[in-house]
Amino acid sequence: MLSREFLMERNYCCGHGCKMCPYIPKHQKGNENMTRKYKSQIGTIPKIVNDFQPKTDNQKLFFQKISDFNNQLILCHGIAGTGKTYVSIYKALQDVLRRGTGYDKIIIINPTVDVGNEDKLGYLPGELQQKIQQYNESTFTILNKIIGKARANKMIQDDTIEIGVLNFLRGVNLENCYVILDEAQNVSPMQIKTIMTRISQNCKMIIQGDMSQCDKYKTNGVTNYEKSGFYDVWFRLKGVEGVEHMAFNREDCIRHPLVKRILKTYEDEHEITL
Q1: pTM confidence score
Q2: What would the pLDDT profile of 238-273 be if each residue is shown by its tens digit?
Q3: Which CATH class name applies to 47-270?
Q4: For residues 87 and 250, what is the distance between their CA atoms, to the nearest angstrom?
Q5: Which residue in 7, 10, 8, 33 sits closest to 18, CA to CA?
Q6: How far apart are CA 159 and CA 126, in angstroms?
Q7: Per residue in 11-39, pLDDT tens?
Q8: Where in the chain are the domains?
Q9: Cα 205 from Cα 194, distance rounded (Å)
Q10: What DSSP string describes 117-186?
């Protein structure tokens, strides 16, 4: 059962008949009208460092799709700069840091594919954690931005946050946790199937990627998108209960305006519409 604290912090009614629903009238999806009694208690609920303020309508929609507890698996496609990784990590942190959500861990996975079609983790210098950090610099940056470096480091040290690579996912117990698979365009159909079928009790999985940045399945500079596990699963799971799809578009890019203009020049050649 979801706690009242969790439902209050979500700031809108999910419409699924929650027993502890604090909104009036109850059980009306999207309703943000909270009773005065509960509204006065919001300030006492532990918050993460920075509040989430969506910069686009699709960021808000993505956040809501992750928040819906009926969506156990969310597939998200979007070009770089749309904020998909920031939103998914933010929501995972929000639920893990709250009481009563049932989530106690975040697992963030990134395929070990370097630009140039090579799995190079074994050839990088340094210990395993140093190698993993090289492939997840953007993840560490997002964590530090949301909850601060000290808090992020503590959560990593006590295994509340586990950052790894696809090769080392075997043996991980996917219960009571968020799993975020980033850069999924570089994962094979068999790998992505293996990951999805490890979903267990109270596990929410977010698989996200950008087919225009598919580095692994190239022959003579031409990408064979159909070989990507992300491409395959996007269409395979259409209409499956418990699975939600989210697609960002070029207008959702929140980087410098020049980046948008640069991406526009590649539109016909590289953009993949799912």
Answers
A1: 0.76
A2: 999 999 999 998 889 888 888 878 877 766 554 555
A3: alpha beta
A4: 17
A5: 7
A6: 21
A7: 678 888 888 888 888 888 878 887 666 65
A8: 1-45, 47-270
A9: 13
A10: TEE-GGGSSS-HHHHHHHHTHHHHHHHHHHH-HHHHHHHHHTTSEEEEEGGG-TT---SSEEEEE-SGGG
